[in-house]
C-alpha cells in the first residue's frame, strides 16, 4: 500500500443511488446488465497491476484489488482500483470500489455492506460461486482497512 497518489480514482456511488438504480431494473437480466455497466465505469486498470499480490483469493474469476493509502486534510483514506476478467465480477468489485474508495479505514469497516446487499437482494441474482467471490472481495477490503488503522 502506497502513501502517494498513483491510482486513478474511481467514480463514486452512494447507497441511495445504487438502490435507486436497482429499483429501476425490473428483471434479473436488467439487474445483471446494471452490474456489468457499473463495472465498465471503473477507470482503466493498468496491466502491470495484474499481479498475484493484488489478486483476491476465493474468487472463481480473477479479481485484482489495489489499495492506496492517501493522506488528505490530516485524514487517512483508502483509494481502490480494481479489475476482473469476468464482466459480472468486475461489476461487483466495481460496486464495492465505488461505494468504499476514498473513505477512511474506519468508515469502510463501519459501512453496512451486508444490509445494503440484503436490501438490493443482490445474492438472489448471483450463482453461489459469484456470491462466494463477493464475500471474498468484502473480506479483502476489510483486511486492508484493518491494516490501515
Separation of the first and last Cα atoms: 13 Å
- Estimated radius of gyration: 15 Å
Strand content of the residues, in percent? 5-15%
Give the helix tally.
Answer: 6
CATH class category label: Alpha Beta
Overall pLDDT confidence: 91
The amount of helix comes to 40-55%
Largest sheet, spatial ordering of strands: 1-2
Annotation, overall tally of beta strands: 2
- Secondary-structure-based class equals alpha+beta
Biggest sheet details: 2 strands, antiparallel
Task: Describe what you observe in this structure.
It is a single chain. This protein is of the alpha+beta class. The chain has a single domain, classed as Sufe protein. Chain: A (Alpha-Beta Complex), CATH 3.90.1010. Helices cover 48% and strands 13% of the residues. It has six helices and two strands. A two-stranded antiparallel ribbon has the order 1-2. The longest helix is centred in the last third of the chain and has 21 residues, at 128-148. The radius of gyration is 15 Å and the shape is globular. The two termini are 13 Å apart. The model is unreliable at 1-6 (pLDDT under 50).
Structural features:
149 residues; alpha+beta; 48% helix; 2 strands; two-stranded antiparallel ribbon
Q: Can you lay out the helices and strands and say which pair or pack?
A:
Elements: H1 15-24, H2 28-40, E1 63-72, E2 75-84, H3 87-100, H4 105-110, H5 113-120, H6 128-148
Antiparallel strand pairs: 1-2
Helix pairs in contact: 2-3, 3-6
